[in-house]
Every structure is written in structure tokens, then in C-alpha cells.
Amino acid sequence: MATFLIPILILCPLAASLITFVSAGRMDARGIGMVACAGVGISAVISIILSVMLLSGPVTGVLQVTLWPWMHMPGFSADIAFMLDRVSMLMILVVTVVGLLIHIYAASYMYHDPGIARFFACMTLFVAAMLVLVLASDLLCLFIGWEGVGLCSYLLIGFWYDDPANTVAARKAFYMTRMGDVALLCGLLLLVTATGGSLRIGTVLAAVANGQLAPSGINMAALFILVAALAKSAQIPFQTWLPDAMAGPTPTSALIHAATMVTAGVYLIARLHDLFAMAVPVMALTAVLGALTLLMGACTALVQSDLKRILAWSTISQLGYMFLALGCGVWQAALFHLMTHAFFKALLFLTAGAIIMRAHHEQDIFRLGGLRHTMPGLTAAFVAGASSLAGLPLVTAGFYSKEMILSGVWSAHFNLTHGWTLSGPPLWGMALLGAFLTALYIFRCVFIVFCGKAGTGAAGRTSRLMSIPLGCLCILSLCGGVIEMPDTLLPLHLFSGLLDPTAVLSHTHQPAWLVMAGAGAPLAGLGVAWVLWGRSSPVMREIPGQAPVICPVRTGRGMDALYHYAFVQPFCLLAWLTRLDILNHAVTGTGLLIQTASARIFRARADFLGRLAIQATRMIRWAGHLLGLLHNGRVRWYAAWIAGGLCAGLAMAVLS
Amino acid sequence: MNPLPALVLLPLMGGVLAWVAGRMRAPINPSTSWWVVLATLSVETLILGMVTFAHRAHAGPWLEHFSMPWIPAMGIAVRLDMDGLSLSLIWLSLILCFLCVFLATRQVTAHAGAFHFLFLATLAGIIGTFLATDLFVFFFFWELMLVPMFVLIAAWGHEDRQRAAMKFFMFTQGSGLLMLLSILGLVMAHDRLTGVLTFDIFTLAQTPLSPALSMLLMLGFFTAFAVKLPVVPVHVWLPDAHTQAPTAASVLLAGILLKTGGYGMIRFNVMLFPDAASRFAPIAMGLGVAGILYGAWLSCAQDDVKRLIAYSSISHMGFVLLGIFSGSAMGMQGAIMQMLAHGLGTAALFVIAGAIQDRLHTRDMNRIGGLWAAMPRLSGMGLFFAVASLGMPGLGNFTGEFLVLLATWHVSPATATLAAIGLVPAAIYALRMVNRIFLAAPRAGLPSLEDFPVRHMAVLGCIMTFLIVLGLYPQPFRTFSVPSPLSVTASQEDHTP
User: What is the pTM of this model?
Assistant: First the structure.
């Protein structure tokens, strides 16, 4: 099969990135947009061709291509190698197709920005890095993409660097994910040591299956990788960077911080699900953290007033669903939700971007209002995305993927050590509550923004280039889910059959009321939201925001403040205190001390010698004077001296 | 004719010529000495290219050999040998010298002839250090590269140059004396045991020494190299020297002079005293981790661009120390890769910092800001090299760091984890620099600035390409730069034909 297409798939966006970067200031905005869309578009076409080829082949067919050896030495080998199996096929389709739609949208959205070349260079570079991440067959090669997407995310969050707040948000995102990257690096080191020198995903999983790793080693490796995934996907305790990341341009938020990059953690765990299946405590931890995150994200989204921040917290919450599914072992459901989430969240972000652009950059939902009269098209698109996010039964994609997760969670069971067990139903309950809250917060947003009396006036109209992607995403987020259905409705399992044809999940033992409950929760949320915010005289225009509990949550600054005072401030303080290098001071101080001491000694010595010399000269002069007295030139005196001396000499000779 | 003495002597002669050209009354062209330097470096590159490519078929690990008696009564000979390690480090030196010559030294107008002479004299000393295999000659070159560098800093440096130069000289000279003692001790021990007075390391490597004595002698060497590398408690000279030195000298210092420390550790610690080195390894690795964390930590708190880069060098050199003493070939190769990548990346950063200082007359990051709008090319380059310095996979530094960490993990997972944690502050200092200087709101009152011209971009682009190749396809460099063991002497191969 044509494996040469895989490198070309990655090279196209990369080339587009280089061209746009080099041509900054020489090409006009239209040209740059076209180059970027062409780069991503070609790779979208290639990925569709590759998918068709892969699906027409045998069910376990995998396309492998090894480009060149990266590091080969005794005890370790890594290659720049790519692999296309069905999981990566799904991912490249999501990345390139959703990416293409977002690029088309952005070509119009960013048309008047002076930095459009830098924007598209980073966006296409991001697509290339993301493709490396999902196609790599070597974990070290995956790490290139893993860090590469982080870098692009940093560059794009801080895209409008004139405002220091944006660059602070960008750095925060990079630092927090970097901690995860270090954990991933440690996990890789552990795995490569255990497998005897290879990080090929196949080799690693085979080594795990053969029992080459001790159980503690598996647990440690899984824990390291989990930390990396949590940081990348903004789960508890790393969730604080994602809301701030909304400082970037809206297409960036749609592509990187909703559809693709933040799902890299989900992809990584799904890719290594055999490893995680052996590490039961880590799986339980994943599930619990996912459940907590989804509830926390939904609750926080409920009290936000910034349109983009609502969507950001909703992303965190939906990623929590995916982690819950991964933790319960239903990784197919996680990937399914990943796909539908990419559709509807991209749609929501792009629509929000179009709304904000037309409403004079107003992001506060309480100042927007009544937009359904002025922007009917955007209203329809947003409502489609919102109902898919809420998972309104039957008609939306989100319903099917969420249903798959819920049914998987219900039957999960963890045998922890020492008789401790954790079973699915409590987690299922949390997930169901989350589904209710999801519908509540997103329809709160819908009713406040689109119903009621008009707020900020709207201007202009959405360009056709922006409406086409919105339309496509609408269709995808409404109908993209019918390929997989709960058994209660229709035994249709195209998606899980696609991913893993050998083991189709069985849902047969599930009671029917589970599906009913899963369908009822979003409807209940919709109803409550209608009562509270949607009726012609709403019960509440605004949650009493002045309540002290709400305030820290509203701004999302509670955890931020905690981290700020617990980690950032001490670090800054210590760094500031030691900025002059204590060791340098010590050495310089010693030097000064020695200098002073030697100067003292020198002076003392000089004084001593000087005084000695002066005394000596004085004495010599005195002695000379005395001796001079003897030579007075009188013969009598000389004779007397001679006689005296003779007497003395004789006396000594006689007496001795 | 043997190319090795030519490699050492050519820069020296070129330097004298450059000086003469600079002192000529009413020179034809004010930059005559610059052209002389360029010509010298080109010829040098030609010779080195010949050495590299003429000996592909050569089976032995030592590529070239030269020997000439100097003081026969004391067993001192001018003995030069070249293996893959020295060859790759000399290539690095030449590439960085070209970088300096194209981007930095032409701006020097005060006593340009003398400046270029000292520049080339330092290069001669460095190349000699990389080639010498006679301990006396090695020490000679080791001292030779210090003096011109001292003068370069003291005469052409920035505001606080005298103190920095003196500090640099005291530290390196003082530790050099310890090395001299060790050299003499080793020679005496060998003389007492075998009755042969020689400074030849191939012979000295065979000396049976008592564990205590070999540890003592190794520590003498280690101190000298540790000051040069630098290792944390004795790194104190480095930030000052790097900050105060003129751009070209900073590039030489960070790019190559530090590498002589790593080179010396590989050849004269690990290879000359393998047992003592392996006993000393835990302490050395601890010092390496301390260097990684301490350097990165302090780098996060600096406001002076050049000082920030200098501290990041300390952090990177910690990986080199860790790799050299990890006791495996993998760690050694990681350390060598790290030296090459750090040499290229940090040198480019110093060139960029120097260019900023030339234009804005300040190194304080609180006063520089938002250069992207005014100088997109320079800023793009700065961004790339800052990202390389934080260890982005796919660029040279990551290859070195990963191999070192892997080798360390085999020895002690906890140490490797600590060293890996050093990558977090690496991101902090690199991005802090990016967001202060390049991607920041433009500061009011910036003078109109001239961006890098295309030829500067071409030179930096070459460095960039080298880093990417080192990061993505390090295999040829890795096999190429393997140090030869001392048990195989070059002379045996040469005497047979």
C-alpha cells in the first residue's frame, strides 16, 4: 500500500508553515490564507484517501513506514517511524478535516490582522505537529509532536503579545503542560529501561503483555503517563491553564484548546490502553479524577459570564467524561466522544467567535442578548452545537457518544488492593449529574445570549467563508453520532467495529432505564434552564454573583490563587532572593576577606619592618657616633686605649 | 605533509599577519585584518575537510598522528593525535569562528588587528588542546588559550571588564596549577615504577597506580576541568566573564572554551583513570544534577540577557557532566551531542544578544522589549534558539539530554528524575526571555532599529540547520564523534608502513 502518503500528509502543513513564515510581509493576507488552507486541505484529502485504503484492507491492517533511524546504539534504538492504524486514522481525520474547516474560517476571521502570516505559520505548524503526535509509532517520536503542539499552543495563546496578560496566559499554559511533559519523559525512560531499549508502541505493549515489567513498574509508568495526559488535557489538578488560554484568537481556541491538542492526553491513554488495563489503581485514579473534573468544570461553567470561558470550562468538563471513560476501560467510547466533541466544540467556538466579532468584541453574556433577531443563522448554529454538547436525545451526536460512556461506566468495576473495590454506579451517578449540569449551563448561555431583550447592537454580517465551515460543522455535530447506538435503540456499532473489529463492546446486559436516564438528564437540564433563564420573565437574570462562594468560582481564580500563593510566589521570591547567586557572593566574599587580611598583614609587616629599620639605623648611627668619639686624633688618647686594652687582654688571659 | 601541526600553527600565523595588517600605516582598507582572518579560517576549513574526508577508509580509531621530539631529556614530545571526538569539536570551533567573524568581529574598530590576533591565538590554543596527547603539550595549549582570552575580555569587554577578566583568570589559572601538579605526579609515579620519563598519555595510561594515588591525581585533573566546564561550586567566574566579554569572546567562551572542560573530562579523567572515575562517579553525578537545577534556577531570576544565557549554559553543562560520569557509552555520546548542540545554540544566542546590545546599548531585559515588530528576523531567530535551549524534541539539545537521562536512569532513576525536573525551569527562563525581549509590547522610545541583513540570516540559518539535523538525524554525528580508547595507540598504525 502507498505508505509514502503518510510522510506527505505531515509535510504538507509543514511546508505551508515554512512558506507563510518566510513570506511574512511579502504576501498579502489572501495569499497566506490560501497557502495555509491548501496545505491543510491537501493533507485532509490524503487522509481521506489513506482511510479508504486502510478500510478496504484487512481488518487488522496497519500501514507502517520507517523514515530513518533516529538514535541507534547498544541498549537503545529509536526511529522516526509512523504507523496508521484505525485509531490514528480516526485522529488524522478529525485533525485534518476539522482543522481544514477552522483554517477556512480563520482565513476570513484573521483577514485584517497584521500578524496573519505568523498566525497561519503557527496554525499549520500545529497541524503538522499534531499529525506527528497521532501517527508516531515510536513513543519518542510521539514526544516530538507532544512538545511541538505545546509550543504552537504557547505561540498562539500569546499571539496578541501587546497585552502582557496574553503572554502570561501563554507562559502559564506552557509551564503547566511542561510539568506533564517531564512526567512523560520519566515514564518513557522507565519503559525503555524495562523493555530493553525500544519505545515502539508495539514492543512496549508486547513487553507489558509478556510480563517483562513488574507490576509496580507498570503502575509507575502508567502514573507518569497519566500525569502527562492530565496536564495536556487540563484535568484536575492542572485545569487552571485552559480558561486563561482563551486569550488567543478564537480559531486557535477552537482548533487547539477544544478539538485537538487538549485531546492528546486522551489519545495517548487510548493508544496505551493495554498498559493501563494492567494498572488497576491508576485506572481507578483516572476515572475518579475524570468524574471530579467533569463535575467541577460543569459547576464552574454554570457561573461564568464570559462566553469563551464558559466554553473553556465546558471543554474541561467534557474531557473529564473522556477520562472517566478511559478509566473505566471503555477507550472506544472515549475516542467516540473525542470525535463528536471535536465537532460540536469547534462549532460552538467558531460561532462564538463570529458572534463576538459582530458584537464589537463583547464577550460578556449579560451584555449580549436577543441576538436571535439580528443573527438568526449564528443562533441556529450555536443552538445546534449547544444541543449536541448537552446531548439532547436522538437528534444530536453528543447524545450517542455520552450514552456510550455512561453505559460503559455503569458496568465498570475496579479491584483495588486489600479488598477495596470501586464500582461503576457511583461514577455513573456523577456522570449523569454532569450531563444534567451540562445542559443547564449551556442552555443558560443560549437563553441569555439569544433570547430576551437586545443588548449590544450587532454590526456587519458573517462572511460566506465563515458560514460554510459553520454549516459543515453543524451537520457533523448533529448527525456525526448515528454510527454508534445503544443496543436499546438499535444494535448499530459501526464505530466500535471500526476501531476494534475483533472485540465489539457488548451492551446486552444493560437495563433499558439506563438509556432513559441518560436521555432524561439533558432534557431536565434544558427544562430547568428554560424555567430559570428562558421564559419571557426569567426567574433569574443572573445568579447572585455577590455571594462569597460564587465569586472565586466565577472568575475561576480559586485554584489559581491557591497555586499562586502555594507555588508561584515562593518560587518567585526564592528566585529573586538568590538572583545574585549565593555561591558567587560566597566566593567573592572570601576573596574580599583574603584581600583585606593580606592587606592588613602587609601593612603590619611593613610597619614592623619599617620601625625595625628605623630603630636599627638609629642604633647604628648612635654606635657610629660612639665609635667616632674614639677617633678624636689625639695620640695621648690612642696610647691610653692601647695600654687599657693591653691590660684588659692580659687580665683575661691570666684570669681565664 | 602532516596536517595536524598545520591546523595548530595556521591560526597563529594568520593572527600575526592580521596584526601586522592592522598596524600598517594608512591601511588600504580598514577591515584588512578581518579579511586575513576570513582567509585563515577558510584555509583551516580546507585542511580540516581534507583530514575528514581523506581518511574515510582508515580503519583505526585514530584518524591522524603527529609526533616530534621536543625536549628529549625529559621525555617531552610534540605529540598530536586526532580521533572522532577531537575532529568534531574542531569542526564546532571552526563553525563558531565563522559565526563570530561574520556577525560580530567586523564591528570591532578599536585596534582591530590586535583583536583579531588574540581571537585567532585563542583558536590556536583551543585546537591544540583538542589535539595534544602529550600531557606537557596539553598543559601548554591549555594555558595558551587563557591568556589571549583574558586580554580580549579585559581590553574589549563591557563596563565591568577588569574584574570579570581577573576572576576568569584567577579561577582557570589556579585550577590549571592543580592540573600541573597532577601531571607531574603522574609522570613521577610512572618514572618511579618503570624508570621511563615520559609525558605521553598512551604510555601513562598503562601505569599501575594505587587507588588512593589515582584518585588524588584524577581529582587534580577534575578540578581544572570542572572550573572550565563549569561545575556548580566553581562556576562563579562564568556569568561575569560571559556577560562582560565582547560578543565574539562570549561566543568562543560559551561555544568552545567550556567544551575543552568536557573534552578534558572524557579524555583525561574517564579514560586515563577509569577506576578512580567510576569511584568518583556518584559525587560527579550529584554535582551534575546540582548544576542543572542551580543553573536553571538562577537563570530564571536574571534581568541581564547575557547573564541569563550564561546561567543556562551552566544548566546545560550539568547534563554533560552527568553523561560523562554515567559510566556508559550512551551517556558519553549524549554528553558529546549535548556539547555540540549547546555550542551551536548558545553561541547563536550570544550573537543575537550582542546584536541587541549593539543596537540598543543595554542588556537589561527591563529596558529592551517588543523587538518583534521592529526586527522580525532577529526576533524569529531568537525565538528559535531559545526554544532549542529549552530542550524541544527534534532539536539538538533534546537528543543529548535524552541520551544522558536514559544513561542516568540505568544508574539511578531518582537522579534522572531530578535532572529531568530541571527541564521545567529551562522552559521558564527561555520563555521569560522570549516574552521580555521578542514577543512583548514594543517599548516607547525605541530608536529605529536595523534588522539582520540577509547574509547574517544565512549564517544563522546554517546554525539552525545544524541544530535540526543534530536533533532529527544525529546518527552520523554520533558514530563520527566517538572518542577513541587510549589502549589503542595511533603510532603503532603509523609506524608499520
Answer: 0.89
